[in-house]
Structures are given as structure tokens and as C-alpha cells.
Design goal:
By secondary structure, the protein is α+β, with helices and mostly antiparallel strands. The chain has helices at residues 49-55, 105-113, 125-132, 164-171, 179-185, and strands at residues 21-24, 32-36, 41-47, 69-72, 83-87, 90-94, 100-102, 118-122, 137-139, 146-147, 150-155.
């Protein structure tokens, strides 16, 4: 039986008695075995053309303090994501504020589309399509880093479920899915 639990929090898969989880690479526990599922994921700062026409476009990250910014709240801990930006090995971390905070990507993307402010988010299908359609515009593109992609991870404990290996093999089957399709098709699980 395959039992899938969708939880964007940083659940402890051992304590929760899960066989495996899927998580962004930068959030992996050090004592887990990890199998890469997707390529690295670009982070993008985006805003609606209407917002930018009214408020102007930031030229450097420090300009974000004069803008309305849409924030992401980590499920579980409740902490607000600090925007980590990078340009030519110069790394900065910003705490920004604005009218909207959510722990659901769909909500923050919709906020950006509605012109509420600048969003810093993963380049997912909706963000990508909205940029292509001209409903969102990238800003500070030269400050946008790439983060480790999605990984399936599991404990090195010896009593893993026998179906875990075939499940991993299925996820890694490159004959049926391209890397891009896999990156956009897999749910995030913890």
C-alpha cells in the first residue's frame, strides 16, 4: 500500500514512521540518505507590471525596503523566509515586509498577480507561465540564486519497507519522465 501524506512542514520522518520524504535540498537532515529528483530550482523576484508602473522597479536589493513585499511563512515553525539573494558570489539576506504573508505558494503568487507587491518565489509552473504571459515581470534578475532541487530522502535504518526501493526506482525512471516534467509534477512531502 502506498500512503502519501502532503505536509509542507519539516516533519521528522523517523518519528512520524514514514519510509521517506521529499524535500528541497537545502532543508535536508544531515543523517539522511538523499536521492536527487529534480534539477536545481531558480528563485525569482517578480511583480505585476501594474505594481511596477505605480511603484517603480528596484535596481538593487536594498531598494526592496521601499517596496511592498509578499512573504512566505514556513509551515510548522511559522518563521518568515528571509530573502537570500546572490550576485557573483556576493550573498545577502534581507528581511522585508509587506501586505501579505502565506505558507501556500498559490496564495502568494495570486497576491503578486493582483499587484500587492514584489514576490520572491520558486520558479514553479504558475510563476513561469505568468512571466511568459506578461502578467508578472522579473526584477533583480541578476540577484536571483539557484537553490538545490527536490530530493527524496530516507533514514539509513535497516528496517526500510521493501517497497521503498521500487518506489525510488519509479521516481527516477528517466525513460518515462523528463527532468523538467518530474520537477513540475512531484508533490512536496515531508
Amino acid at each position: 500500500m502506498l500512503d502519501i501524506v502532503i505536509d509542507d512542514g519539516l516533519s521528522d520522518i523517523v518519528a512520524g514512521r514514514f519510509d521517506a520524504g521529499i524535500r528541497v535540498g537545502e532543508r535536508l537532515e544531515k543523517d539522511m540518505i538523499a536521492v536527487r529528483l529534480t534539477p536545481d530550482i531558480p528563485m525569482l523576484a517578480v511583480a505585476s507590471p501594474q505594481y511596477l508602473a505605480h511603484h517603480g522597479e528596484p535596481k538593487v536589493p536594498a531598494d526592496l525596503h521601499r517596496h511592498a513585499c509578499i512573504n512566505w511563512r514556513f509551515p510548522g515553525s511559522g518563521a518568515v523566509y528571509r530573502w537570500r539573494m546572490e550576485k557573483k558570489n556576493k550573498k545577502i539576506e534581507l528581511e522585508v515586509s509587506g501586505p501579505l504573508i502565506s505558507n501556500l505558494q498559490e496564495v502568494v503568487v495570486e497576491g503578486a498577480l493582483q499587484g500587492l507587491g514584489i514576490l520572491y518565489a520558486y520558479d514553479d509552473d504558475r510563476v513561469h507561465e505568468s512571466i511568459a504571459a506578461g502578467r508578472l515581470k522579473r526584477v533583480l534578475a541578476d540577484w536571483s540564486p539557484t537553490l538545490p532541487g527536490l530530493f527524496l530522502y530516507y533514514s539509513d535504518r535497516r528496517n526500510s519497507h521493501p517497497a521503498l526501493r521500487p518506489f525510488i526506482d519509479c521516481l527516477l525512471d528517466r525513460d518515462n519522465w523528463t527532468s523538467k516534467q518530474r520537477a513540475r509534477s512531484l508533490p512536496t512531502m515531508s
